Amino acid sequence: MQFPRRSFQFVTPHTAVTLLLAVDILVYGLCLQRSGGGPTPSGTVLINLGAMYSGALGHHEYWRLITYGFLHGGMLHLVTNMACLALWGGPLEQRVGTAYFLMIFLGGVVMGAVAGIFTHSGPYFTVGASGGISAILGALLGLKLLKRVDLPASFFVVNLGLNVALAFISPRVDWGAHAGGLAAGVVICVLLDRFEVAGPRLMRCKFPEFVKLNLTAWFVVGLLMIGGAAASPDVAAFAAAAALAVLVGMVKAIDVALSRRHGLALAVGALAVGNAVIAGGAVVVLVPAGGCAALTPASMVLWAANALSALLTVVCAHSAIACAVVVVAVFELTQLLYLPELRRGLADAGFVAASMRGERARRRGL
Description:
Layout: H1 15-34, H2 43-49, E1 52-53, H3 64-67, H4 75-96, H5 98-119, E2 125-126, H6 130-145, H7 153-169, H8 175-202, H9 209-229, H10 233-258, H11 263-286, H12 297-300, H13 309-317, H14 319-337, H15 339-346, H16 351-362
Antiparallel strand pairs: 1-2
Helix pairs in contact: 1-4, 4-5, 4-6, 5-6, 5-8, 5-9, 6-8, 9-10, 9-11, 10-11, 11-14, 11-15, 13-14
């Protein structure tokens, strides 16, 4: 669906925007609870739960490049960011799809953190979804430059102007994160558009949205696991490159499978196996060798803080059994979640594969 000509209309949030709104609000409530119920989260709680700070990368805490984007320093900070997320995110997700939307948002969060490192000369810590939200605005701008949408220039003048003015008015605004996220949104949008244009030469099929979402989740979880386990920047960079290479190989393998009869069922099976392996690997990585006693407050955020402490104790005490249970459970849950697609793939006599090949050939850009 295209935007109305020369106008901007509010679009009801879809899957990703709704999920991000819920996660941000729930995490803010958790921060208040762990801060003793005060009006704003304490700096100590924010640091413990994943805020980005000047020495984070030096301590190999790469996971903070993502987690800081789900924390907020106060109610006004939260409400402002969530309002922008709902206003800009709905139209973008509707236009590019849930998977591409999440790529843009998370890419903006990471690049916002990286830009913040270079724009702060002294010690600092930062929280907020501003990098990801600025990436949404940047992606809309990218679509405008590519002539994929017909938004008025005034929309960008007003919103970009407000961001610039806010950066000058409030010294607490991390303008580096805003600028980095905005640039990331434009770049990622253009790259995705170029990929879609080159799609018929690179790929056989147009992937269903659930496949793109699952593959995106693989990459994000893989980066978080690498960020939590890597001992140095070089190791993290090598592991991330290896993870990307594996993901590219999986993408092409699924592409080939989807082009064949019963390929949709094969894709569901591959995703179920991949989800099970990653879930089992996450148990191995996240459960420390020393058991529950070795857990730090920062790592507890990965287990929903104290809410799952009883379950975590059992997992730490019986990690091998827990890993096996998680692998089997995730494998079965993935098949159950994608049951309609699995049945469609099993019943495919060739028409499903042909339709996906035809859709790839018809698409030209985002």
